[in-house]
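TODO from last week: model NADPH-dependent FMN reductase.
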Amino acid sequence: MSHVVIIAGTPSKRSRLTGLTDYSSHTLSKAGISVEVIQVTDLPAEDLVQAKFDSPAIQDALAIIEAADAVIVATPVYKAAYSGVLKLFLDLIPQEGLRDKVTLPLVIGGSIAHLLAIDYALKPVLTALGGRHILGGVYAVDQAIERNEDGTFTLAEDITARLDRSLEELRLTLEKDGITIS
């Protein structure tokens, strides 16, 4: 069975980014793909800030990435780049930690003006980590994701359509690479 890990690099679990990661996780699971989520904020802050590579929590998270066939990297845009929370974690991934993994960026921002953060901020770091098969990614503006009273999220139709296309591309790439889907 294919295994995908979602790295959620948002400082707040109530972030609208959670709408993108929840939708992605649910969609991939329905397609018979095993999904695990690493909430970076669930990792010990001291271990992240002090780059404690030998921390059991960090080692467990890195083992999840190592075992994955694909990695979805999800982040809000702050100051024209990915979040500092995500950066702390990415700095702990070994130099070739994304080698041979399909990688899909998911990014959310306050306006369309931050769209290029995927290409000019996030993708270079993913490449530096050995990522060679980085899919185009999905960028969403905050207003396209509604936070519901029950804690769930409703995504605008254009966002779900773009996510569906990207997640299908991810699934087909895994299949093409000979990775069993279910």
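Done. The chain has one domain: 3-177.
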